[in-house]
Amino acid sequence: MPSQYTVGVDEVTVDDAFWSPWIDRNRDVTVEYQYEQLEESGTLENFRRAIDGKSGGFQGMWFQDTDAYKWIEAASYELAKADDPDLRERVDEVIDLVARAQEESGYLDTYFQLVEPENRWTNLNIMHELYCAGHLIEAAVAHHEATGERSLLDVAVAFADHVDDIFGDEIDGVPGHEGIELALVRLYRVTDEERYLDLAAYFVDLRGHDDRLAWELDNSEEIGGASWDDGALVPAEGGGSLFLDDEGEYVGTYAQAQAPVREQEAVEGHSVRAMYLYAGVTDLVAERGDEELRAALDRLWTNMTEKRMYVTGGIGSAHEHEGFTDDYDLPNESAYAETCAAVGSVFWNQRLFELEPDPAYADLIERTLYNGFLAGVGMDGEAFFYVNPLASDGDHHRSGWFTCACCPPNAARLFASLGQYCYSTTGGELYVAQYVGGSLSTTVDGTSVELDQESDLPWDGEVAVDVDADGPVAVNFRIPEWATEATVAVDGEDVSHDGSGFVRVEREWDGERVELTFGMEPELVAAHPSVEADAGRVAVERGPLVYCAEAVDNERPLHQYAVDDDATVRAAGEADALDGVTVLEADATVPALDGWDGELYRPVGETEREESDLELVPYYAWDNRESGAMAVWHRRT
Amino acid sequence: MPSQYTVGVDEVTVDDAFWSPWIDRNRDVTVEYQYEQLEESGTLENFRRAIDGKSGGFQGMWFQDTDAYKWIEAASYELAKADDPDLRERVDEVIDLVARAQEESGYLDTYFQLVEPENRWTNLNIMHELYCAGHLIEAAVAHHEATGERSLLDVAVAFADHVDDIFGDEIDGVPGHEGIELALVRLYRVTDEERYLDLAAYFVDLRGHDDRLAWELDNSEEIGGASWDDGALVPAEGGGSLFLDDEGEYVGTYAQAQAPVREQEAVEGHSVRAMYLYAGVTDLVAERGDEELRAALDRLWTNMTEKRMYVTGGIGSAHEHEGFTDDYDLPNESAYAETCAAVGSVFWNQRLFELEPDPAYADLIERTLYNGFLAGVGMDGEAFFYVNPLASDGDHHRSGWFTCACCPPNAARLFASLGQYCYSTTGGELYVAQYVGGSLSTTVDGTSVELDQESDLPWDGEVAVDVDADGPVAVNFRIPEWATEATVAVDGEDVSHDGSGFVRVEREWDGERVELTFGMEPELVAAHPSVEADAGRVAVERGPLVYCAEAVDNERPLHQYAVDDDATVRAAGEADALDGVTVLEADATVPALDGWDGELYRPVGETEREESDLELVPYYAWDNRESGAMAVWHRRT
């Protein structure tokens, strides 16, 4: 099995009218730009200075090393899909710098090596050495899987062994920013070394009942980071204050340490960290089984999806700590909904799906990919949202690159490896989980399977899948939650189904074509009555896409439109701009302006409304034209 | 004519079931507490130190002297209505300190006298010497009118003469915080010295086209205030930054200096300052006539009332500069709507009414008094809102006193002088502008008039007015804008009228009773379509009162209620608490909770609403019981 999921990046080719342009732009624009930034930002120079044994002169964020690792990971996925000598050469050059910067002991973190070597492993809370280790390991595994080479894997193994030596022995503690847990499971899967699994389990189990993070806050003068403006733990303005409650007391919530993972009831704190943690925990459960941890994951997933998630699949309501707040607290304009958190949610949900192929996980991945994630990336591949609000007054725009460049590289590694999320061979059956055109070549429980998929999503619900196998295989086709009707036919013969979940077709396959048709009537959805931000509002969905209104398409200010619960919403053709997205048009009303001359308030009985249309475009496509207000949730009349 | 309006404080006795308890609490609780604070806060000690020629040791805000002046003004209104030897004695004691602290030159400002005597008149922008002078003059005139004594008037005259010597001669400049303009007109009216009117005109005319304020910002090292933490002009955190635009350039908007007053188009900046300025300008126009200024006032009033005013009469949308923002920008939860600004609006509108008895001014005074102003004062007379939002999540509460104690004393002087606002004798006719029980004894164009009023407002629309006069007098009775029907009868005989404005009854009066009945059907009002914050929302009014919903009275969270445009709203008796206010009950719906188990988003067609009642209390009475959410604007279904 590949290190991450049951299907490897190299087993899938994406050839899809919708997704391929994104993936191509990612490869041609984003990954290239990401590489240039390694030099531009001083990331590579940090490694060079460490190689030369220099002191000081560190550039960038204190976890800047991860920029190199994330680029290697994304580039490796590209190499896994198709060799590219130029790219391979550049990857090797960067790996060479990384490898040479590693200390004899296996330690590798250029910030501490250059700035405060005496303080390594003292500030687990903020200083992110273990987070860097996680990204190093992920990059190394991806590179090894793509190329078969061990150049970076050896570095990762040495660092992981060093971490294994230190933790649980010299130090007991867990990272303030998770990520190493899932990375260690990947490392275990390519090395078969049980100790990496043990180490992942150690970090998962210790979280929430050690007092290391609290101790660091109380002993800020003894720990690393204080001399580094951006990363200083001491000042109340620094990250450390995020670990404190209103009374200045330590609470672990920010880093999911409010309770041991197996006792946690709700998704809390920084949402990217939460997703990385729970992805790692899911990996652990997959490897070792642990009913208690599994039950905790169920509770956490249920809490997230039933009480703390935007309709776009986005997560994280508050800017302050980039994370979750309270049940049903889902403000639209001030939403955080970080692009990286959407990526993390896809990571977690795919792992959950591999553990138990519940279509709900695949439905959520689809919702997140097309909406909460995709909005994070501009249609030119050059600009990104860190934050993805569901309403805007027109002042929120994508930026080229961030000082803390986490979202663009995370988007890069997801685009580059998107094929993995389309299929699964969990439990010895094949799952067609996402309808993305292309091909799959894999083995299912020893049986070779070749599959070709054509998909008209997200604009039309027509999908055709041709399957070939050298033995009988059960293939499961997902009926998306959004399908307003669904037909499934194998070789022209309808397959009966109950309209939801997976349709299982077990048989010999010899190029049979499976044709799936999913109804895509636009639908108005409401949010739970406890969601104050969406009270009296509706969102419009069509197929997997959440739609939004933008000022540029609508004559009146957006707040003036209101939509009936039973309003007709029409697919109104392709937009001239926005790569020809299907636009929607909803019957709406706006206030009549008669009688308002000289009046600010009037008896409501004297006011009237008049008919209008509300024009809608896919949420992911917003802020790609003239800037202006945007809203996902529209008033109901 | 009295110094402020055509009817003096001493000519009216308020004896009203609604207002008298407020006025009594104001006299017994607020004014007493305000006096204690003069010692507590160091205000009197500042005067004593100045008398003793000491240096330093100044306590409180740099304009702390005004606390003494405002107390004297409020106390003087009490003395005007009824002698109170104890109060008179304490007023005399405070006046004695003020008088002895005055310098030979007439200069009086204990901050500058104690802290930086060399820097007087250098920082007109922030340091408020002219603002202090304004309050001194107002107090002195009120005291003189109440007692006939000149003890404080002489001080005010000496300071005004000093200001007159300095300004326009040694210095050209206008105050950053207005107030002296209207005060100088009051001083003119009791002294008949034309130079005070000239000085008021000077300040009004210079505003907006001198560069003094800009010069101060550019020369912060040469001006006063920099050494005083709270008042420092230099730091960006200080008040000075409020005069800068986003690019750091000086803009006069904050202090209504964006353009000469006669060219101004919209109410801008700090709303209390704006009201004080426009009140002073109105006084000037009344004295001298000035068509251009008059036209400017009309434009400004129209802009405010048609585009920049809350339904409560509150003004000022933004906390940052305590003031006006853009047309139709009227956020509810983050409203500023300072209590002092409501008081200032009453000051301005009463002056406009005296200039031209348009019922719209009296209507707005009534709306402001019962809503935007009254909410600022707790029903115990001991706690105050500085800020009056129209929606709250339950975290906004009245406080006992403020470091910057501007609102409580402003409320105090308004309550203490409320009678002045009920009547006017402008243009030689009598206007019954506000329906507040009590009596009036005045002369109208030489004719003595005695009037007794009984009023059931705001709970019922029954009013009876008995009039006696020693000659024929035209008496005008206002039909309030909110009256859903109205009858006016003199001695039992109906008077015909067109249902709005003033009903004019010119005749001999010999104790005739005028009975007025105003319909008080609850009414749902909507805001102009351009007001985003109120889109799809209604407010409920009954008579002069705006109502609100409080969490304590309603089972569901407030955001779940929705009201039909034609919903029935019932007066539902008197509340057990809140001094027996009339509560309202509106037909409403709330979302059915069925079907939401485990769902965060659902097709709107599957959701249902069920009937409920929304309970409402007068807005002014909110936050006087168990704390919780509050909303003035309710969703429409």
From TrEMBL, chains A, B:
It holds the Pfam family Glyco_hydro127M. Residues 522-634 form the Non-reducing end beta-L-arabinofuranosidase-like GH127 C-terminal domain. Transmembrane segments: none annotated. It comes from the Archaea. Gene3D superfamilies: 1.50.10.20. Residues 430-520 form the Non-reducing end beta-L-arabinofuranosidase-like GH127 middle domain. InterPro entries: 6-hairpin_glycosidase_sf, Beta-AFase-like, Beta-AFase-like_GH127_C, Beta-AFase-like_GH127_cat, Beta-AFase-like_GH127_middle. Keywords: Hydrolase. SUPFAM superfamilies: Six-hairpin glycosidases. One of its GO terms (molecular function) is hydrolase activity. One of its GO terms (biological process) is carbohydrate metabolic process. Residues 11-419 form the Non-reducing end beta-L-arabinofuranosidase-like GH127 catalytic domain. This is Glycoside hydrolase family 127 protein.
